[in-house]
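Give me structure tokens for this 310-residue protein.
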Amino acid sequence: MPVSISHLLGLEDVSAQDIGTILDTAETFKEVLERPIPKVPTLRGTTVLNLFYEPSTRTRISFELAEKRLTADTINFSKATSSVSKGEVLRDTIRNIEAMKIDMIVVRHSAAGVPLFLTQCSDAAVINAGDGKHEHPTQALLDMLSLRQKFGSLKGLKVAIVGDILHSRVAGSNIHGLLTMGAEVMLCGPKTLIPPHIHDLGVSVSYQIDQALEWADAVNVLRIQLERQKSGLFPSIREYHAQIRRDAPPYRTTEKEITIMHPGPINRGVELDSDVADSDASIILYQVTNGVAVRMAVLYLLANPEGKVE
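Here you go.
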């Protein structure tokens, strides 16, 4: 089934049907990844540019692997070794690259709105791999795929997003996607890290981690993004550690098992302890595996909406 979107800029305006189609297609591609030769010729002849203006390990490798599994031609852009270091602006960079006949662009940038801007100066399909504090849609899609595999359905599921909500594009996309798919969302963190008026999106808010753990079926723990903070929003890492971090016992002694998630990279000993991150309740590595399948699905659906997986 094709999707109604031409680009994936975020999940705010993506319908439940399109999200469901992406997740269903990702399940198909996950089967492909388990084959002896995990590769299909679906995007043969398609050229994908990975335009990463910010450092990335998981997302960049995951996209590159997804592109190679689909037999696409891949070009990697590095800000440090590009003409950007000579003063070239983004518009000129992308127009010159497009003149080389690029079909799709995967972009990560520190400024919110850059993926939308690229759609206005390029004919290529654009996929947002994270723009500032705005959205990170493929991360939310792989989170939702992991939850759907764990619980069978997202409808009615209670998901707590814990930590640095204010600076998190992962939180932004998860809120939109989970609510669209019928899940309930609670945000939890220090008051200074919870955006004002966030209730307007239809989420609940708690400043007590114990309350969030009591309520939730799954907890998505976020990294403290010190690189995006211009001033101290909490007194110290030690205080944050004391307020948000939890040792294993609270996760284990609640009456129900709480599923632990994290988009990575983990600041071990800050927002999450190793004995929790590596416990049986953690599905963090499943999230990483599902990331390749989800990105294959997004690339496939945007590049070849009428085709079939071979």
